[in-house]
Write a structure and sequence with these properties.
RNA Polymerase Alpha Subunit, Chain A, domain 2; 13 strands; 6-stranded mixed barrel; alpha+beta; rRNA-binding; Ribosomal_L25_dom; Ribosomal Protein L25, Chain P; Ribosomal_bL25_C; ribonucleoprotein; 5S rRNA binding; 4-stranded mixed beta sheet
Length: 211
């Protein structure tokens, strides 16, 4: 992942009043949680909003600079004011090198499925998965190339590229993406079979009675 760094300032005053004054000054109250403790801090609202707008994901790791030290964190929760959408509070979760964390990784596709060009219907069914990974092996997105996906083919979770150290936390082996036959293709196949049967002297299959 691309290295992302933001700066935080220590925060000693707590409560609604100090928090309100910080927001007026363009700051967002924050907590840094991890290792059995929580540190109070603040971050510049414009910087954190820019980070969010850039496409930050649940598994995106951030180097948070505080008190001359760098803490590796990810965004655990963002609270917003319901009427304005302004960031009210943000929680960062500190990670420990070598210690697995549970998070959610996005799944993106690239390319145009071969089957789509032939008239099939491409479907992207699973857009994120839960995983357990060490910070060193974590990536915030898995990208799969679907160019070679033909009609009738699929990609399952077990086929996703990922580090061997990951624990993928899903039930079964769901289909992530597939290219399926459309109603038009199925109708054409039935018509083709009926013609072939007629050519061989076989009676065409009777249509199912409508309910």
């Amino acid at each position: 992942m691309e290295k992302i760094t933001i700066k935080a300032q220590p925060r000693t005053a707590t409560g609604k009043g100090p928090a309100r004054r910080m927001r007026v000054e363009g700051l967002v109250p924050a907590n840094i949680i991890g290792s059995g403790e929580a540190k109070s801090a603040s971050v510049v609202e414009k910087e954190i909003q820019k980070l969010i707008d850039s496409g930050i994901r649940k598994a995106t790791l951030i180097d948070l600079e505080l008190d001359g030290k760098s803490e590796r964190v990810f965004v655990k929760e963002i609270q917003r004011f319901p009427h304005t959408g302004q960031i009210r509070h943000i929680d960062f979760y500190k990670v420990t090198p070598g210690k697995k964390i549970q998070t959610t990784v996005a799944i993106k596709t690239t390319g145009v499925a071969k089957g789509s060009k032939a008239g099939g219907q491409f479907e992207h069914l699973v857009h994120e998965i839960k995983v357990k990974s060490t910070p060193e092996d974590l990536t915030d997105v898995i990208t799969i190339d679907v160019t070679g996906l033909d009609i009738g083919m699929m990609i399952k979770v077990s086929e996703l590229p990922h580090p061997k150290s990951w624990d993928i936390l899903v039930n079964g082996d769901p289909i992530v993406a597939s290219c399926n036959k459309t109603k038009a293709i199925l109708a054409a196949e039935r018509a083709e079979k009926a013609e072939a049967d007629a050519a061989k002297g076989k009676p065409a299959a009777k249509k199912a009675a409508k309910k």
